[in-house]
Amino acid sequence: MSVPTTVRFRRAVTAVVLSTALMVGATACGSGGSGPREELSAASMGELAALAAAEPVAAEADELAAATPSPSTSAEKQKFAKTRFVANASLAAGATYQWIVKPYRAGKFKKGAKGRTFALIKAGLAGAFAYNRLKAATENAKGDPLLAKAVAPLAAGIESLKGLGSKLRKGQAGDGDIDAFDSVINSVKEAGQSAGATVTDKVPSASQLGG
Length: 211
Description:
The protein is mostly helical. It has nine helices and no strands. α2 (42-67) runs parallel beside α4 (116-141), α3 (74-105) runs antiparallel to α4 (116-141) and α3 runs antiparallel to α8 (175-194).
């Protein structure tokens, strides 16, 4: 099976997306100012690399799945829809907890906190990634009547997350914004569970994304 043109294009621009994210971080880290200078650690570089690559790779998986011959029976189609829903929703849940909810609760986003700059960059990338994966999961759910019915009421909540990635990156997110992400993820998990599609946190990793 040949790789779709858009997939090849995404692979070409992934490096651009990654280098841009890292350049922003390096600029913020080395900019002049009265605040303490943040060190660019190998761990921070690795996490930013994973996040910058996550969405293109996840989107590639969607397109490659779409290019795969469609399941022939109704039961097979529903099973395929649930599998894709779980994969996308689990990635959204993992990224949200690892890079948004957990660091926020730990005070990493507060002014003066050590590593704040990179925590905010990672949160911004994770926010955009989670939103896109949740949108993809919503589309996947349409292939299974029971799952589609369970997920349909969550559309507005998912859409409300659209601009939060940018807000997080700029350090403008508050309790309400973090709660919104957490609430939507929990609602998606509950909807999936009710339809036999269990969603568990799956954190995107550099090794996984490069595989």
